[in-house]
Amino acid sequence: MPAPDWAEATTITIPSVPTHTSEEWAQAVFDVRNVPAPVLAMFWLRERVVGLLGIAKGRPDTFTVDKIADGEALIEADEKHLRFVASVQADNDAGLLHVVTAVELKNRAGRIYFAPVQVLHGVITRAMMTSARKRLCT
Questions:
Q1: Less packed terminus of the chain by CB within 10 Å, N or C?
Q2: Which domain holds residue 111?
């Protein structure tokens, strides 16, 4: 995304062994069946509120990996209110997992919707990454 309206990077440490690909990490991080309970509650709330803004409810395939490029797993969603791209990259040698999110806001509904999301995004992303680390590395 050449000029996002908003972007954020979140990094956590991961064990060097066992190693997992960026795609495996992306699948684990964005597996909505395994997100922490507080994050699940926020997803539930989102589904109840978006209709008021004319935004479609979430789809099960929203967070599936769309492509792998240069060791990054890329997830893209292009909706009428916003477009987002998430990049997941595991640096097994350094023991780091990076998730970078970029968002283009398309209209007023997108700006209203994203205002509270941007405040909580870092906390939610870190919680999902930490949960994935527990599942993949223990």
A1: C
A2: 6-137
Considering only CA atoms, which of 10, 44, 12 is closest in space to residue 134? 12
> What span, in angstroms and rounded, lies between the C-alpha atoms of 95 and 107?
39
Who contacts 33 (Cβ-Cβ below 8 Å, separation ≥6)?
none
Tell me the backbone φ, ψ of residue 82, rounded to 5 degrees.
Answer: -160, 165
- pLDDT tens per residue, range 88-125: 999 999 999 999 999 999 999 999 999 999 999 999 99
What DSSP state is assigned to residue 31? Answer: -
Residue 1 maps to a domain: no
Cis upstream peptide for 15 (omega within 30°) = no
